[in-house]
Design a protein that fits this description.
By secondary structure, the protein is α/β, with parallel strands linked by helices. 36% of the residues lie in helices and 20% in strands. A hairpin with a 2-residue loop joins β3 and β4. It is globular and about 40 Å long.
Length: 201
């Protein structure tokens, strides 16, 4: 399952410090950790409605994007950015929260639907309804009651222990990240999921 190499990594979330520790912003947190790891600065771009960065990761030229739209309008940032730099959907990795997984469970997936995630839905629409981008879905758990979902995702802050669990479960070592960046999703999925099972044991 080797696809085109990844050229753009996007972390989804809501803009502003008040959201930075919420479950809906785990994609942003993951992206910022990755940027720090490779010393890539993120700078605000009014043109693309987001914070953008570019740098070398394991010898690969990678662009980073955190949309400064609200989550449900993420495509307003991702679409124009990808179009301007001629980045195909298959060359994009989107990182976001997944309520279908408990905290500490993460999955890499290539293609598929939006699974009720409005940020992903917006990105799909902006990419011409293409679904063939890769995703890193970071589990944040479910409140148990759908009526509490908005508050659970956007108003309740995560504890330090929860943030550390999220970071540990979603971390990629250099070998895994290399598979991701070259688009070898079969190897990436196998290694990522086996590593996370080892952590749980």
């Amino acid at each position: 399952m080797v696809s085109p190499s990844v050229r753009l990594i996007v972390g989804l979330g809501n803009p502003g410090k008040k959201f930075s520790r919420t479950r809906h912003n785990v994609g942003e947190r993951w992206l910022r950790d990755l940027a720090q790891r490779f010393q890539i600065s993120l700078e605000e771009s009014a043109r693309f409605k987001g914070e953008i960065g570019r740098g070398s990761m394991l010898g690969h030229d990678i662009r980073l994007l955190f949309p400064l739209t609200y989550m449900n309008a993420s495509g307003e940032s991702v679409g124009p950015f990808a179009s301007y730099y001629k980045i195909a959907p298959a060359e994009i990795l989107i990182v976001y929260d997944e309520v279908a997984f408990e905290l500490g469970t993460c999955r890499i997936k290539l293609g598929g639907g939006d699974n009720g995630h409005n940020g992903v839905k917006s990105v799909m629409s902006a990419l011409g309804n293409r679904k063939d981008f890769a995703r890193l879905r970071i589990g944040v758990g479910h409140p148990g009651n759908a009526a509490e979902m908005v508050s659970y995702l956007t108003k309740l802050t995560m504890s330090t222990d929860e943030i550390e669990s999220m970071a540990s479960s979603s971390k990629m070592n250099d070998t895994l990240l290399e598979y991701v960046l070259i688009g070898d999703w079969e190897k990436a999925m196998t290694l990522f999921h086996s590593l996370k099972e080892d952590i749980k044991r």
